[in-house]
Write a structure and sequence with these properties.
This protein is an alpha/beta fold. Helix content is 37%, strand content 27%. It has a 7-stranded mixed beta sheet, with helices on both faces. Strands 2-3-1-4 form a 4-stranded antiparallel beta sheet, with helices on one face.
Length: 415
Amino acid sequence: MNAPVPTPTAPLDAPTVSVTLLGRDHAGVTARLFEVVAPYEVEVIDVEQIVLRGRLVLAVLLTEPADREAFERSVADVASELDMDHDVSYGQGDNRGRRRGRSHVTVLGAPLLPSQFSAVTAQIAAAGGNIDRIVRMARYPVTAIDLDVSGAAPEALRRALALEAARQGVDVAVQPLGIHQHAQRLVVMDVDSTLIQGEVIEMIAAYAGCEKEVAEVTAAAMRGELDFADSLRERVALLEGVDVSVLGAVYESIQLAPGARTMIRTLKRLGYRFALVSGGFTQIIDTLAADLGIDYWAANTLEVRDGRLTGRVAGPVIDRAGKAAALRRFAEQAGITVANTVAIGDGANDLDMLAEAGLGIAFNAKPAVRDAADASLSVPYLDAIVFLLGITREEIEAADAEVAETDPQPGDGAR
């Protein structure tokens, strides 16, 4: 016969006691503290623990014991036994749930300086936020720190921190905390200057002797100064007569963004799906998607006749609206709500896609795109995106080590 399930007996506004231990980290500290306080018939309300350079901070929130004096002696005795400092303090009504307006804030810097972190956390306080939890997500190639914040409206917090991040030269991402964060996601990426370094059309143009002219039009289009479809046709017209074999050579010269393979394999292990939505060309994207194990993709197609480019695009152009439509289509095919999609891009033609997604990330983007996106990364490492999704560098490395012998993965540059 199963034992009855105990239910909490203390009301939410009952008096509480906070116990903190600080000292050298060693095995059994947590178990010993709870063993000592157990006879006082208190309930566990909250526990926080951190280890930094071998120093342990353990903070426990309990309902208030009936015999304060005896309780404090027991805590002092166990702290002495463990050679740790301790603190005991009492409060009232602090055992309720976190305040409304909960956000997940990620701060990234390379390096991350104390003055920068101070400025960001000061803005959180100014917005009415309280930092409930802090944890490091990564030490390299960037320092990434996660903060769980309550008490501030996520949108207001995002606006305030975006301005502060720009002043401080760091990246700050704000996401509302909620159950949707744990849902399976679809990641939809731009390709040129996002998944790969550089622009494919400019690489082709180099063979046609018009790279500079094409690059100037590309830059204006990415800033949103030109209509993308018109600018694409203008640039493609300059490629007329280029031998189709050039496309194979261009593909061989492509370099992925640092961390691209790491990001893809890490998230695929967790059930994420990936899509590429590109203003580039199927002659490149088809092969790239196959090489990386991408689930869905859409791109433009260069018209070819007699083994040479005609200077025209075959079929409709995948432009700004087309990218957003592709995101919706791929989400439907994957059986994932649009709210559980992540979009990553850098140019003006990515704006609708970034706005449509549940989380839009500007990656080394133009100013207008950074301002419009939910989050912005200015570091060149694509795998920094996994830190925004709650995955630590240590977890990535542990997963890689676990499968290294049975499931070797392609290299990813320095990482």
